[in-house]
Design a protein that fits this description.
CATH class of the largest domain: Alpha Beta
CATH topology of the largest domain: Penicillin V Acylase, Chain A
Helix content: 25-40%
Structural class: alpha+beta
Number of helices: 9
Strand content: 25-35%
Largest sheet: 9 strands, mixed
Order of helices and strands: EHHHHEEEEEEHHEEEEHHHEEEE
Strand order of the largest sheet: 10-9-8-7-6-5-4-1-15
């Protein structure tokens, strides 16, 4: 299956973002209304929650709503407050020896992935991130060397809160360190359970287990798969092999990976790399975030794409997903 990734640079929301919205909105509108319009919060409720929990984002939100068409439905969608549920797989780890980096696999259905890498400066801080929900973040880094990545937490509970990708956007726009990122993760409510791994330029890392029905749990753990402190959803855990992947990451970081290249290479092979696209858990990309260099690499078997704040060339890459990967 061919999938095209696009790198887009636009300091402030403008015609490039507007064109992306027009391209993706029909699919997002179907998803947003998949449980019926009444299942989604009203506009004023969504706006009040955004102002209460992430007020610094409101001016950007209002600008994006205006660009997107300024309708009630679009405003509710872009607030990312209590969106429909979504399940992904994903593995992520921090290499903390020598020069630290955050590496992750994003495992999901290609039909539900934007594949857009946005380079922005919406609030005075440069951010490069893989986009989701038109302004949320699957993984990314800011100019201060703060890198973040998410993975599903393996719990069925749905609650009242924000989609985690918008929370990651908030962190990259306004936080500069792991400590500041964790404070945000502990404060802002989320609607589903997710694991967020954070690494800053000093090398400090943490993984936060976010839950809609319980306070966030923060651990100095340099890896995450798709469960939290215990397995709560056996069927999902079995389907995604989360325990096997977590143990593999543990072993890699305890010495099985003899160096940083070994660790990165392991993300391009089983058990971390997945060809389960038919089940919605195929590896769409591997990303490596290097805070000290402020550089990013997107990887696929046999292909790599390097970007950075000092060298961000707009363009696209078409990848044959699953091609060249060991089985």
């Amino acid at each position: 299956m061919d999938f095209t990734f696009q790198a887009v640079a636009e300091d402030q929301p403008g015609p490039k973002w507007e064109a992306l919205f027009k391209r993706f909105w029909p699919a997002y509108e179907r998803w947003f209304l998949s449980e019926g319009e009444k299942a989604r919060p009203r506009y004023l409720t969504s706006l009040r929650q955004l102002k209460a929990h992430m007020p610094e984002l409101v001016p950007t939100y209002e600008r994006l709503v205006e660009l997107a068409g300024n309708t009630d439905l679009i405003a509710r969608f872009l607030s990312s407050f209590c969106p429909p549920s979504y399940l992904i797989a994903c593995s992520q780890a921090v290499w903390s020896n020598d020069e630290p980096f955050l590496v992750r696999n994003y495992d999901y259905s290609p039909q539900l992935c934007e594949g857009v890498i946005l380079n922005t400066s919406w609030n005075g801080r440069c951010v490069i991130a893989m986009s989701d929900g038109m302004w949320g973040v699957l993984d990314g880094i800011n100019e201060d060397g703060l890198a973040v990545s998410l993975s599903f937490g393996g719990r069925r509970v749905i609650g009242v809160g924000f989609g985690v990708p918008l929370l990651l956007r908030y962190i990259l726009e306004f936080a500069t360190s792991t400590e500041e990122a964790i404070a945000i993760l502990q404060r802002v409510p989320v609607h589903m359970s997710y694991n967020v791994t954070v690494l800053d330029r000093s090398g400090r890392f943490a993984t936060a287990y976010l839950r809609p029905d319980q306070p966030a749990v923060v651990r100095a753990v340099p890896y995450a798969a798709n469960h939290q402190e215990e397995i709560e959803w056996e069927q999902h855990a079995t389907a995604t092999a989360t325990l096997q992947r977590e143990y593999f990451l543990f072993r890699q970081l305890r010495g099985d990976a003899r160096g940083p290249d070994d660790l990165i290479g392991s993300f391009l092979a089983p058990p971390l790399y997945s060809n389960a696209f038919a089940k919605g858990y195929g590896t769409i990309y591997t990303a490596v975030y290097r805070p000290v260099r402020s550089e990013i690499e997107y990887l696929w078997p046999g292909t790599r794409w390097r970007l950075g704040f000092d060298a961000f060339a707009e363009g696209s890459r078409t990848i044959s997903l699953g091609a060249g990967a060991p089985s």
